[in-house]
Specification:
GO terms for molecular function: thiolester hydrolase activity. It comes from Marinobacter guineae. 15% of the residues lie in helices and 50% in strands. The chain contains one helix and six strands. The chain is elongated and about 45 Å long. A six-stranded antiparallel sheet has the order 1-4-3-2-6-5, with helices on one face. With 111 residues, it is of the alpha+beta class.
Length: 111
């Protein structure tokens, strides 16, 4: 669940600057056991070009009102539909719903 959440948050963050996109690669580091009622992923774009973006993500568990970071991830997101990459396929974003904070920080809430 944590990896799925981080993967989707990274892809949505990259998609915010690239449009339709797919994850090229990503790495996740688990910091502690995931114990809590709610998981929140916060992703941001570190660097973006025309065809790819590098993004970072923090996964936070909320247990008894206390937030604890349980994982960090980083990934490269590539623009979909670029025939040079052979990525001509439809991309469906309807699986989950992203939210945006006032600071422009991306959050993906998965309950």
């Amino acid at each position: 669940m944590v990896s799925y959440l981080a993967d989707n948050a990274l892809t949505y963050a990259g998609g915010s600057v690239l449009g339709d996109s797919v994850r090229s690669e990503y790495k996740i580091n688990y910091l502690r056991p995931t114990i809590g009622e709610i998981l929140i992923a916060k992703a941001s774009v570190i660097s973006a070009g025309k065809r790819q973006a590098v993004c970072q993500c923090q996964v936070i568990a909320i247990a008894e009102g206390e937030e604890r970071m349980v994982a960090v991830a980083q990934g490269t997101i590539t623009k979909a539909g670029d025939s040079r990459d052979g990525l001509d396929f439809p991309f469906d974003r309807r699986r989950i719903r992203p939210t945006w904070g006032l600071s422009g920080q991306f959050s993906l809430n998965q309950y």
